[in-house]
Amino acid sequence: MKTKKELKEEYKQMKIPMGVFQIKNIVNNKVLIDNSIDMESKWNRHKMELKFGNHWNGSFQKDWNEYGEENFVFEVLSELKKKEVDNINYNKELKTLQQMVTKELNTESIYK
Asked: Which InterPro entries did the record assign (predicted)?
C-alpha cells in the first residue's frame, strides 16, 4: 500500500490539462470562452448545467436548447503547463491567459 507522501507525489505527476478552452456552436459559430485547472471537469460541468437548463449564460443556454448538444464542440485554445515552483496562482495565470486569447478573437462571436 502506498504512503500518503507517495500518493501526493503521484498526484503531482499527473498530467491534468489546464488552460483556456471554447465551447463552439457549429451552427452560428458563436463561442463561450472559459478556463480551468481541469478543463475536462469544467467541460462536464458546463454540459450538466446546460442539460438541466440552468447555465449562467442565458443566450448560450437558449442556443443549446435550440440547436442541441450535437451542435456544440469543445476546443482547447491554449494550454498552460504546470511549473516546478509550488507557489504559483494558476487561477490568476489562467484568467490572464483567457483575457489574452479573448482579445485575439472576434468579440462579436463570443457569448456574453
From this structure: GIY-YIG_endonuc_sf
